[in-house]
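Inverse folding, one chain.
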């Protein structure tokens, strides 16, 4: 019997790798940099670096961005994972993985809002997705989208096109720059998408201080997330009272989560597992371990103890 399995969740901001044994004990956790194949010319080398320390004799399930969405990226990911990890490895789209994790393989809608955004549903008509078209013309409600809106509002207050409510100054204080440094901060960075997505945390902090502009940005983000959730639910054949859950840093913010709950009309189901836990769960099923509801609950508890989300 295999001693352990490995789960990997590679997102735009960070990558989590866990090793889990048959009793759902967490044997190791690795946190490393994110992986976004659309933001670098060296995506193959980045993915190889992430996988370098993954044991090749263990069953591995990976959640990777853009998998089965862009053929060239999918082919590259398949080739690298096969070369480095062999037949024991299985790749899933990262949002499909989040849905699988939240419902432990069951039906429901997963709304993900991290660096990017997408909804993924499993229902009577099969799987469906909505949103997730990337930062150029999609990812509404994501951390990147929130960051872009915050920068736009701040710029309009800085040059006088909009009334100065104090939002621009407060935002710059949160990200520790002067007002006149805003353009340089935004444009002189290696991974602009992840960099700007980082502003979402500052907007959440200002919303907790009742800043009207920050609250307006988060409310509009929630509307966008509701729209993709409803669209995915309908396409999967789920009813208007569909069960939904969530993943990603944006929806870890209570303000955004409450706005989305209000828009959908009922609160979410707490995810049974975080995405990386779902990856380990899938790998455990594939090797034939007895992974029932109790196993899933134990893994969730052990991951929480390791601050893995």
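Residues assigned per position:
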């Amino acid at each position: 019997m295999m001693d352990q399995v490995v789960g990997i969740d590679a997102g735009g901001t960070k990558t989590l790798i866990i090793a889990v044994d048959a009793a759902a004990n967490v044997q190791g956790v690795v946190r490393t940099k994110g992986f976004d194949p659309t933001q670098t010319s060296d995506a193959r080398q980045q993915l190889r670096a992430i996988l370098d320390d993954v044991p090749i004799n263990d069953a591995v399930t990976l959640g990777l961005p853009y998998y089965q969405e862009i053929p060239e990226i999918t082919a590259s990911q398949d080739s690298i994972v096969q070369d480095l990890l062999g037949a024991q490895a299985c790749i899933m789209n990262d949002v499909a993985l989040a849905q699988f994790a939240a419902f432990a393989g069951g039906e429901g809608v997963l709304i993900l809002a991290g660096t990017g955004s997408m909804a993924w549903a499993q229902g009577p008509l099969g799987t469906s997705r909505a949103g997730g078209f990337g930062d150029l013309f999609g990812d509404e409600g994501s951390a990147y989208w929130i960051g872009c809106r915050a920068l736009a509002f701040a710029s309009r207050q800085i040059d006088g096109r909009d009334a100065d409510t104090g939002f621009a100054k407060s935002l710059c204080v949160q990200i520790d720059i002067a007002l006149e440094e805003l353009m340089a901060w935004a444009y002189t960075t290696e991974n602009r998408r992840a960099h700007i997505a980082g502003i979402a945390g500052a907007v959440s902090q200002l919303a907790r201080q009742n800043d009207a502009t920050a609250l307006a940005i988060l409310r509009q983000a929630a509307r966008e997330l509701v729209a993709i959730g409803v669209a995915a639910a309908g396409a999967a054949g789920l009813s208007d009272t569909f069960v939904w859950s969530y993943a990603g840093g944006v929806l870890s913010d209570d303000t955004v989560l409450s706005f989305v709950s209000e828009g959908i009309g009922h609160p979410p189901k707490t995810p049974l597992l975080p995405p990386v836990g779902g990856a380990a769960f899938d790998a455990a099923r594939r090797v034939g371990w007895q992974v029932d509801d109790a196993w899933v609950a134990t893994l969730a508890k052990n991951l929480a103890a390791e601050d893995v989300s």
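Strands lie at 4-10, 14-21, 26-33, 59-64, 89-93, 108-113, 117-123, 126-131, 244-247. The CA atoms of residues 156 and 162 lie 5 Å apart.
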